Serine aminopeptidase S33 domain-containing protein
Amino acid sequence: MESVVTFRISPYIALNSRIKPRFRVRLQSLGGDPDLEVLSSDSIAVSAASCSGDWEKNRAPIHGGTGEKEKGGAVIDGVNVRLKSRVERKRVKDVVSKDLEVLWDDGYGNKTVKDYLDGSNEMIKPDGGPPRWFCPVDCGQPLQDSPILLFLPGMDGVGLGLILHHKALGKVFEVQCLHIPVYDRTPFEGLVKFVEETVRLEHASSPNKPIYIVGDSFGGCLALAVAARNPKIDLVVILSNPATSFGRSHLQPILPILEGLPDGLHNALPYLLNLVIGNPLKMAIVDIEYRLPPRLQIEQVARNLIAFLHSFSTVAIIVPKDTLLWKLKLLKSAAAYANSRLHAVKAEVLLLVSGKDYVLPSRDEAQRLKSSLQNCTVRYFKDNGHIMLMEDGINLLTIIKGTSKYRRSRRVDFVSHFLPPSMSEVKRASDEVAGFEDLVPARKLGDWNLKLVSVNVFCSRSKFYSRRKSYLMDTKGLAWLRRSLLLTAGSAVFSTLDDGKIVKGLAGVPNEGPVLLIGYHMLMGNEIYSLVAEFLTQKKIRIRGVAHPDVFSGKFDDPSNEFSLHDWMKVMGAVPVTANNLFKLLSTKSHVLLYPGGTREALHLKGEEYKLFWPDQPEFVRMAARFGATIVPFGTVGEDDIQEQVLDYHDLMKIPIVNDYVRDTIRKATPVRDESKGEVASQEVFMPVVLPKIPGRFYFLFGKPIETKGMKEMLQEKGKANELYLQIKSEVERSIAYLLEKRKEDPYRNIIDRTIYRALHSPSREGAEIQSYFLQEMRPPQQQRPETLQRIIAPFLMWAMAVANLATSGHNHNASVASQRP
């Protein structure tokens, strides 16, 4: 019989003799002996106290990979190993939760680069040991059936490169980090075999689970090498600025210089490397709360920068001169090894690259790797440096979720594998998504630039790209519009109780699922963010919306490969629109958002505002009745208060070259309703060109809930199902008509009026005022719109905002022109 014993030892073990260490041990029989079982890390406890005491009786030592199963336990190399009883195993299992709560705390922003440097200072003390795995304490206990994630560090080898992400990743992964001691001289192939052994052991113990490998810089080469040598193992490889392009790196010429560099100058090298490797400002603002006043933000950033630069002197200890020379040579061999085996990589690869990586040509390398690897997805972060995983704006778990890479089995399940959005993700989405587009590129047409703008409150970059960049609007000049639109998220939301009474808020929507929300899809889906946000804040309910399959196929991903709206839709819970997914969502008692009008309704033509384009057949009624779901019809208005449609599909088809692009895009799109008839099945739809307005507000009215419990047999009859279907459709139309009429009486419909009123009164009073307008009978004309202070000041405020915008635009234009002068 042959056995393997693997120790996962925390590198902090030798730092404090007063702490009683606990080891994680995995035993696996390779000889097929049934008496020696594969034991999970949760079923073994190791006590280091027995290392200094006498060996107890009834315990057989395991030497050279052999051992015996004993009643009392076993001693492995002098360490007391106690197998947990069934009761203890059950207690551990009970602690493990099966799901995350909505708006859970992912810990993002609680750790900074200073914590990394402080931790590295403790871990670099030489202990003479080999490379090893450790599990950070911050990771905590993962969810049940979570896959394993192996982190392979960069040149530093410390293994704390994910310190900003430990808490979030530790919730949904079994995180293990590789630590390579400073004075370790294991060659690259030795490191490959070490990681490969762990991968194969994990695969043997859980063959149906994927194994995640996150490689940072040098670790990226190591990850690709392991993936190339194990093509039959289900691997998800995540690369952060991989060092496969080291041959074209700026570090190549400094190798001979470093060899002759005096030790005194070497101590200053870390400060120079800091300016090249990362963005100090991005690292310093990780834990900054953006909603603080500017003065407090600046003070906190200054404190972080001072502490960060002071702690960075640790790098001189982490990477001494001889170690740095060894690491650079190791990096050279790693890049050559990985590049020679790219063709053998069968794993699923997610490539994260930076736009300001001054160490490696990462963006060019991303294009090469994408064409060389069989299954590679790229995400580009233009404002980040080489060590992006320690910089602000990068949440690794969010990226994994947004690219649909998180799964617990061989195939992703958008329902059972879904992770609810965290609080930091909701905040980030509100800042990055709920605003106008920044970039408006153009396509050159002869000597003319055809400039198309797709300015949208909640839409990604669905526009034309070209090699030459041109902008229709100044990005800085639109900043105030972006921030203003965030205020429109404070929508006016009403619902209907069972007795027919309309109340403010979502009290009329059932808390318990399954619930099917059926409504009108506004132009370009502008209402989605506000709708999801209202349910999260008021009820802490996650809405699962069904979206077009092309959102998930990657067919129409942003050509710049940036993290886009499609990614955020997946983070917030969107699933592909299929009968199977709807079946799963209703069977799990979810709140499902469904738009029968689909793309045809969201990309309607000019003059078709608030018109429903529903199919003739009742697609969802029978499915809802099968699970006894509650159907809640709702109407929403406000698209005409935030933007004006300038060019629709028919207008675009009249423009040369543009119409070819439109036809090609429609041809590539996946048809969803092949069997449907009428307008809803029309494929003649395309992203319109719109211009922004001074924002108004969105209005939602959820109708009286319709129970389908006990109606399964009755709704099998086509006539009955169609009758209920038409009733739901008429309720949506009635809600839209009601809101269109009632919003005329809203004194706070305009954002200027609303902002002034909020400055003078409390938000609760505003809620009471709008409730009185919407929930009471219409008042006489002279009482509908009183001349209040905000109505008088509004024109002056509009004028001031326009002047400020023009001044800002002019300043930026002059600065841009000045920067282009020779």
